[in-house]
Specification:
176 residues, mainly alpha
């Protein structure tokens, strides 16, 4: 019995097409899975490499906040012969310098933390300016120190820098 050549062709090509489709789909799924795994591996490698840099940034931000904290900056900047105006300008210059020196750390920390750092800096500047405006510019600088410390005692709230440090600590704890 002789079969139709077209039918013979179909008998050979249909199984070949089925095998081809199964192989193609299997290979495609395998390659997609491998691609996703490679993406995850690259992302994890990036995270592992970035983590030390982020921790360094957190350390630098913590140091910035400690250096602009009123109780620290008043002792570090004051000289005995300064007037209120000189002392005020020295404090503000020091704060600006510290902030400018660390402004690049915002790249490595959250927007929330950097906003808290900026707010702390602005509030410290505001306190210094407000208290200094209550004193005669030529009064001894020690008077500005005394008034700022009195202001800090009167408010009894957390200092602006301490609030920012709390945000920083929460963020660092989330990394663990």
């Amino acid at each position: 019995m002789e079969t139709n050549p077209f039918l013979q062709l179909l008998l050979y090509t249909i199984p070949a097409l089925v095998v081809f489709l199964v192989t193609y789909l299997s290979l495609r799924l395998y390659l997609q899975k491998e691609y996703r795994l490679k993406q995850i591996e690259l992302k994890m490698a990036g995270i592992r490499e970035a983590r030390p840099v982020r921790f360094q940034a957190y350390e630098r931000v913590a140091l910035l906040l400690e250096r602009i904290a009123l109780n620290n900056i008043l002792h570090r900047v004051r000289k005995t012969d300064m007037t209120v105006r000189d002392f005020q300008l020295a404090i503000l210059s020091n704060i600006r310098s510290e902030f400018d020196h660390n402004v690049t750390q915002q790249v490595y920390v959250s927007i929330e933390l950097w906003t808290a750092v900026k707010a702390a800096k602005e509030e410290v500047v505001s306190i210094v300016n407000r208290v200094a405006s209550e004193l005669p510019p030529q009064a001894p600088g020690i008077e500005l120190s005394k008034r700022i410390f009195a202001h800090m005692i009167d408010t009894e709230d957390k200092t602006p820098t301490q609030r920012a440090l709390d945000v920083l600590k929460r963020e660092v704890m989330e990394l663990y």
